[in-house]
UniProtKB/TrEMBL annotation:
It comes from Sphingomonas chungangi. The keyword DNA repair applies. This is DNA polymerase IV. Belongs to the DNA polymerase type-Y family. Binds 2 magnesium ions per subunit. Its cofactor is Mg(2+).
Length: 361
């Protein structure tokens, strides 16, 4: 793998603070200062977002509502208003466009910005991030945290460092040490199952990950090994792209222990749905095709798909279709090492590129 210095870019990752819950608290004064969960209900469903007051009790997004209620008996459940969240997101994206044409949305509440070219003439990426955060607060009455660094991976990790309403700047000479200090469970893309697998392999921190050779990472994590190898060294050459239409939203898990029984497989698929559905809700369009990916322990991989005449609009339909695709393959004749579920047909608009003055961190 090429370990040359990455291109010197100035990247900001902006992440709204508890976005859905903060919008609800902004619009309903009775909710301010109280533990709020957006989505689900007291008895069933899944939490889509939690306020910081709720997070103090351990309530998190993608958590079953029943568990969230046990952790926080006074938790207030609020029905999501995605049209409102999309309107606020459009306001925030209009602010991004004042400072760079190169911004890449990850969801309604976060985005990468490449501000290497200083359109506003502020002199540094840090000053640009501060100005953007100030304008978001002034125009939406919401707070945003930001990470500033020389690549996307570190900027995203940095934006979470001083939440809520914080800023973290990681210059190039501090990038590798910053990554080494982080728990791997905070790495972008490392979910609970992967973190568990890493822990069983003795990998707890970025420094532990950096100590492993590429061959070992490829053997244990497949095609993802190269990404992990670079990330552990503060290397990420990905560009900020806003001309890339989003065709699908999905997730997959590789299991530390191969699965065989239908009940175990359904449980594993439901964990994937817990990850995917909030991403689908965050997207600004809907898809009609649900695709199940299944990989056996001999690495033979198959997919099964179902298409609908109308877009998939709710989690129940998405879950029912995923279950049906999986159960049609049961009982399995070989152990399963990976499952994935995707909704395809999603697109997000891009913006043209331009640029002017050079910029420092």
């Amino acid at each position: 793998m090429d370990e040359t210095e990455p291109p010197v870019r100035r990247i900001i990752h902006v992440d709204m603070d508890a976005f859905y819950a903060s919008v609800e608290q902004r619009d309903n004064p009775d909710l301010r200062g109280k533990p709020v969960a957006v989505g689900g209900s007291r008895e069933r469903g899944v939490v889509a977002a939690a306020s910081y007051e709720a997070r103090k009790f351990g309530v998190r997004s993608a958590m079953p509502s029943s568990r969230a209620r046990r952790l926080c008996p006074d938790l207030i459940f609020v029905k999501p208003r995605f049209e409102v969240y999309r309107d606020v997101s459009r306001q925030i994206r209009a602010i991004f466009a004042r400072y760079t044409p190169l911004w890449e949305p990850l969801s309604l509440d976060e985005a990468y910005l490449d501000v290497t070219e200083d359109m506003a003439g502020l002199g540094s990426a840090t000053a640009t991030a501060e100005r953007i955060r100030a304008e978001i607060r002034a125009e939406t009455s919401l707070t945003a945290s930001a990470g500033v660094s020389y690549n996307k991976f570190i900027a995203k990790m940095a934006s979470d460092q001083n939440k809520p309403d914080g800023l973290c700047v990681i210059p190039p000479h501090k990038g590798p040490d910053f990554v080494a200090s982080l728990p791997v469970k905070r790495f972008y893309g490392v979910g609970p199952r992967t973190a568990e697998k890493m822990a069983q392999l003795g990998i707890e921190t970025g420094a532990d990950l950096r100590a492993q050779p590429l061959e070992w990472l490829n053997r244990n994590f497949g095609s993802w090994g190269e990404y992990l190898y670079g990330a552990a060294r503060g290397i990420d050459h990905r560009e900020v792209r806003n001309d890339r239409p989003r065709k699908s939203v999905g997730a997959e898990n590789t299991f530390f222990r191969d699965l065989v029984s239908p009940s175990e497989l359904i449980e594993a698929l439901d964990e994937i749905i817990d990850t995917v559905w909030p991403r689908i809700e965050n997207s600004e369009s809907r898809g009609r095709t649900i695709t199940l990916k299944l990989r056996y322990n001999d690495f033979h991989t198959i997919t099964r798909a179902r298409s609908f005449a109308e877009p998939v609009l709710d989690r129940a339909q998405f879950t029912e279709a995923g279950h049906a695709l999986l159960l049609a393959l049961c009982p399995v004749d070989r152990p399963i090492r990976l499952l994935g579920l995707t909704l395809s047909g999603l697109e997000q608009p891009g913006e043209p590129r331009s640029g002017q003055l050079g910029l420092d961190l």
